[in-house]
Amino acid sequence: MQITPPFGYREIVPLQKDRKVRLPAPGEIPEFCRNSNAVPISYSEFGIASRDYPLAFVSTEAGKAYSAVAVLGVAGGENLFLQEGGWDRSAYLPAYLRRYPFCMARVTLNAVEQAERLICVEKDALSEEGERVFDDAGGPLPRWQPIEKLLREYETDIERSREMSAILADYGLLEGFTLQASVKGAPVSFGGMHRVDEKKLELLNAAQHKTLIRKGIMGRIYAHLTSLDNFARLIARREAAASTPSARG
User: Fold this and answer.
1) Of 246, 249, 226, whose CA–CA distance to 49 is shortest?
2) Using CA atoms, how far apart are residues 53 and 55, in angstroms rounded to an integer?
3) Phi, psi (5° rounding) for residue 104?
């Protein structure tokens, strides 16, 4: 059996009901996000995430697919939303981070990828000093119920995000761009991102426009385009962090 861990996770294993898990303390964030300049964003998060972060699309699978992300920094390994050891409380905390140390993943068995996804957990989070999330009969304890709800809802939502990204790419709407800015007189160049080319929207036919509207993608396109103004706020965070390095936690 082979399980490929998602971005940021080290080694995941199927969650067994008799195991104890070290659950995150209130305000605790995954260690991997401290050195991540972007984090995946799902379909339903576009509206709220666009208030705090620039939302962009990044190429995956060697350019064969795209995924939506919230940009956290303007350099590799830079997260400008860390504050006093945790996440900036004034900013939305993406669901990708809230679900940790759990996730849902497909399993490859005898070289065949299984259709059903399994609930998995970061192996390092398994500990006898942790908590049980199921009782002795295998029933869910109250602590587990909201976690499972988040996992299943997020999995459905991220599939909708993948579909949206695939449609945008298929319609030829995504274009690469590079952020060019200056921080305290020093030039900053940050690329590898894609955005929707608003002018190309006008070239779509009626059926394509209808699809974007019917699937709710059009609203997310404009949330994404509006969110790009947040790059200015990101640069301001970079300048503030450069002035007071200890403030980044």
Assistant:
1) 226
2) 6
3) -120, 135
76-85 pLDDT per residue, tens: 889 999 988 7
**pLDDT above 90: residue 244:** no
Q: Which single residue is written with the structure tokens 């080694």? A: 11
The pTM (predicted TM-score) of the whole model is: 0.90
d(CA 222, CA 212): 12
What is the 3-state secondary structure of the chain?
A: CEECCCCCCCCEEECCCCCEECCCCCCCCCHHHHHCCEEECCHHHHHHHCCCCCEEEEEECCCCEEEEEEECCCCCCCCCCEECCEECCCCCCCHHHHCCCEEEEEEEECCEEEEEEEEEEEHHHECCCCEECECCCCCECCCHHHHHHHHHHHHHHHHHHHHHHHHHHHCCCEEEEEEEEEECCEEEEEEEEEEECHHHHCCCCHHHHHHHHHCCHHHHHHHHHHHCCHHHHHHHHHHHHHHCHHHHC
Tell me the C-alpha distance between 98 and 221, whole Å. 24
